[in-house]
Amino acid sequence: MFVRTAGERDLEAIRGLLADTWHATYDAIYGPQRVDEITGEWHSMASLRARLTHPHSEFLVADDGKAIAGMAFAAAVDEGKLVILRQLYVLPQNQRAGIGTMLLEELGQCFPEARKLRVEVEAENAAAVSFYCSHGFSVTDSSAQMHADVSIVVMEKPL
Are 133 and 82 in contact (CB under 8 A)? Predict the structure, then answer.
């Protein structure tokens, strides 16, 4: 497995990865219909394509040469001092194999001016909260919400 920059030819596989991962993670929280709605909006081809050219960002995939097993997208703000991790997902069958760690470490290298990495995590996604805690993140805010039915915790780690 290696980490590389995502390209146009990867978008369909990334979209499938996101749908599979979201259903495995969030069906029990929101229900399959709501997950379909969210993934249809947030992970549309147009939305993914826009990430390829987003300024001050990195769009990465974990690839074994045959299939994409993970993806991550992050963007720098605040004159590059803060990096916001927008997405880090690994296919359910590939989780706990070090792929998320590889993606996270590569992102840390992509933004040499950054001093802090921030991520927003669904509060009920205990596995994700645990993953980020094990990688040096701590909860800085637990009251933010992206949408009325999505409860978020904000986590940060110094770089």
Answer: no
Residue 29: which domain range?
A: 2-158
Question: Which residues, 6+ apart, have CB-to-CB distance to 123 below 8 Å?
Answer: 129, 142, 151, 152, 153
CA distance 3 to 137: 22
CATH, residue 50: 3.40.630.30
Q: 123: pLDDT confidence band, cut at 50, 70 and 90?
A: confident
Q: What does pTM read for this prediction?
A: 0.92
Cα distances (angstroms) measured from residue 49 to each of 14, 35, 44? 11, 21, 8
User: What angle do the packed helices 11-30 and 32-42 form, to 10 degrees?
Assistant: 150
Q: What is the pLDDT of residues 136-146, one digit of tens each?
A: 999 997 665 55
Instruction: Give tens-digit pLDDT for 87-103.
Output: 999 999 999 999 999 99
> How many domains would you assign to the chain?
1
